[in-house]
Structure formats: structure tokens, C-alpha cells
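Hi everyone, sorry if this is the wrong subforum. Our group has a chain we'd like a structural model of before ordering constructs, and none of us has done structure prediction before. Sequence below.
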Amino acid sequence: MAGENPSQPDKINLRRPEIMEAVAAQVRSHYRSELVERIRARGGVLSAPGITIKLARQFGFCYGVERAIDLAYAARRVFPDRKLYILGEIIHNPEVNDQLRALGIKFLAGTEKDAELEHLQQGDVVIIPAFGIDVATRRKLEDKGCQFVDTTCGDVMSVWKRVRQYAKEGVTSIIHGKAWHEETKATSSQATSNGRGHYLVVYNLEETDYVCNYIVNGGDKAEFLRKFSGAHSPGFDPDVHLEVIGVANQTTMLRGETEEVQRRLRDAMARKYGEANLSKHFRFFDTICGATQERQDALEELLREALDLLIVIGGYNSSNTSHLAQMGEAKLPTYFIKNAGKIVSDKLICHYNQLLQREVQTENWLPIGRVTIGITAGASCPNNLVEDVIRRLLELKGVSVEELFRP
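Answer:
Right subforum, don't worry. Here is the predicted structure as C-alpha cells:
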């Protein structure tokens, strides 16, 4: 507890009314969009000569993201003269992270990190991002006497609680997620935090089927460990640690896929141990983030409407945004862009190809004549970026936003 360890600074309340009032004004100036609010007030549809734009019912910042950003901005105000650091990106959106850099907050991880953990000193302020951090890193920073500003999402912490409970009961956590993602790294570290737990991360249904086959039929242990290299706990033995399993997930995965992972693993355990003994060998807990699900449901609704194409806006390394793009790609031409600057012209767009994991260019992407375009955005994408895309689309069709909303 704070105060018991002399190297640990006392907790400080960042949410003082005078601080949060100033933060709210600053955040609105950076991320709010009056245009988006007007379109939402019209039922999410904007019709103009040559173009109709339809917004998903839910998109953009969720509560957890808003809270994380608010706390980061508040930290700068509460600690104006202290060194401020953040462990990686606060959320997966480059524009938001650029704003934090402009506030003088240095990044400790990621491709553009500004500082190293080793350089931190007692009293330095460290912002924990919405994804959380792994147990070992947190303990290292605690030993240094750093001041934490913890913005970890509550939905993520609920998964941690479940995974810790699995470990306590001797249950191996099978985590549906991306082993390289910050959230899954943090979650998997919770499984081993007591020194006894184990975990295995499965990315997709193909990997799930491999695990299911091993559970039922056994297999080559060395091959199994090679296949899941970097995605399992130290000392993991599939012949031992797949006897009692509990499913959890990265909160931003597709709900339908997570449910199928759970179903297939349950069936494998029932085949191996019998339905009557299933409760002794299998656990499951729904840990999909509510905001993630709302955005997926809203896009599903939008995709049932007549659209010529879909634009998905957000950071390319954003898990929840990538799944929205995946949903769109299964139905119609879909362009995953991080900002309006990627819309070069009506003849050329730069967008992220998830299969190739890089930006590609598509020519003649915007149909000639009247067009209906759907738009959604990930939970880490601010409304001002959505507005920029809307304005760019209207511009390509020769439409003035100001004329559309002229009294």
C-alpha cells in the first residue's frame, strides 16, 4: 500500500473538479467534432448532391479510451514540473499519441520510444496505458519509486481477475488474442504472477483446432511448443497443462470468433473426459469488452443497408479497428485508413491491407456518379478525424459542408 514502502509515493487524486474542468475543455478542443454531432442528430445520415454518407450507430471513443486520455491530460496539469512517461501508446491512434508528445510526455515503448525504463528515477510519473502493463514491468517501476497514473481499462482488469482466479485453482488460461499485443501480454503475465499458473494464447480458429486435436488425440510435444513459441508460459507442457483449462480473451477480439473458440475447446474437453466430467476440466467466462461489441453490432446493422463501399478509420495497430475492417471486407469494398490524408483523390486511396500488413494503393476506388458510403471508426479514433474524412469525401464530390448546414 502507498505510504508503507518509503520508495512508493502516495496516491494523488487527479480528478479534482478544477483539474477535470480544464482537461475537458482541452480534450474537446483537440478531438470534438460539431459536424459529426450534427450528422448524428440527423439519424447518422448526411445526403448531398452526388453522395450519401451513413455513419454506424456506435463508433469512435469509448468510455475507457476517454478516461485514459483525460487522466493523461490531467497528469500533465497536476505534475507540470515532473518528468512524465507513458508505457507505450496510451491507445492505438497515432494522432492522439502525437498530442501527448506535444504535452511533453515521453514514450517508453513502441517503435518511436523516447526513453528507456532504466533511465527512470524515483518520483518520475509513469502513465499506464488503457491496455495495462505486464506484472514484471510494473514491479520494476515500483521498485524505482515511480509515481503511477493508471489508466488501465476496467474491462481489461476484469479479465485479469478471471485469469488470476484460474491460476489460483490450477486451471490453465487459454487466451484468445494476439500474443504480441500489449493487452494480451499484460493479461498473460497475470496468469503467472503467483509463480504457479500457466497460459496458452490462440490467435484464430486454425490454432484452436490444433489445440483441440492435441487435447483429444495427443501429438508431437516439440512441434506443439514450436508452433506456439512466444505464446505460452515458461515451462508449459501440453501433456500436463491442457488437462484443466479456462478460456479468456483479449477484450477487443470478435465476439463470434471468441465464442467459437470457446465452443470448440469445450467440445474437445467433453470428448476427452466425458460430458459428466466437463466441469472438472473446463471453465469459461465472457470477457469481450461491451464497447467493442457495441461497435461490432452497429457495423453489422450498417452493413445490412445498401452501401457502395465502407471506410473504417483508426490506427493500423488497433485490434478493435482491425476487426471492424475485417467485418466490412467480408461484405463489400472496404478501405481501412488512419486519417483523411490517405484519401489522395477520387482516383487513388492509400489504405491498410491486413493480409499484407502494410499500406497499399487502390485506383478508381470511388464510383462515378451518386455513391453511398458507410463510415465507422475504432474505439481509439477521435471524432475530429471522422469529420476530416467526411469533409474530404464531400470535397471530392464538389460539396461544401458550410452550404449544407447554412441556416
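For your construct planning: The chain is about 40% helix and 15% strand. The chain has a mean pLDDT of 92.
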